[in-house]
Write a structure and sequence with these properties.
Blueprint: E1 9-11, E2 17-21, E3 27-29, E4 36-40, E5 43-47, E6 53-54, E7 59-63, E8 68-69, E9 75-76, E10 82-94, E11 99-108, E12 111-118, E13 127-138, E14 145-153, E15 158-163, E16 170-177
């Protein structure tokens, strides 16, 4: 013999909603992975030789809590404390085939917390996509995260590759929990 319990909402002892139903079987759970965002660079961002440069991810693909600034500081500032999965890809490209090395940085509060270096060894590379990710504790009030890159080259001009449809350079984050 089976029992059926009918409820549209389950709450914890503090009266906080854990799960709700719309009566048609569609459930809504806690938004643990919020805030979350992803943004990309729409058009190429020119960068100077051998200079650490902040990547300007200027177009939001989504931003659940308006926590990413895509027009002024190009940084993620979550308003909820917790552990966050941070991920980004920068496609670095030059007009000549003389990339000597590239660096990719994740910054927290203005300081490097993750660094990736690629040295093609043959100075014949023209395009290098770099991916980086990590889990960071963010306090939800003053912490912020930014992405930077650097290219050392023999000649030509270089950029972070931007493209509205292919999105070769992107930056995102989401909360894993407290």
């Amino acid at each position: 013999m089976a029992s059926i319990i009918k409820a549209n909402q389950l709450q914890d002892f503090g009266g906080n909603s854990i799960i709700t139903s719309d009566g048609a079987g569609n459930l809504t759970t806690q938004k643990i992975n919020y805030p979350a965002f992803e943004a990309h660079i729409t058009s190429n961002q020119t960068i100077d030789d051998n200079t650490v440069t902040k990547a300007q991810f200027d177009t939001k693909d989504f931003d659940t809590d308006n926590a990413y600034d895509n027009s002024t500081n190009y940084r993620f500032i979550p308003q909820v404390a917790g552990k966050y999965f941070i991920y980004a890809q920068l496609e670095l490209a030059c007009t000549s085939n003389q990339i000597e090395y590239v660096q990719f940085f994740i910054y927290k509060n203005g300081s490097i917390v993750r660094k990736f270096v690629e040295d093609p060894n043959d100075d014949t590379e023209k395009i290098l996509p770099l991916y980086n990710s990590m889990v960071l504790d963010l306090n939800g009030s003053t912490d912020y995260v930014e992405i930077f890159g650097r290219i050392a080259r023999g000649s030509g001009t270089c950029h972070f590759t931007g493209n509205a449809s292919e999105r070769p350079s992107f930056f995102g984050a989401y909360r894993l929990g407290s």
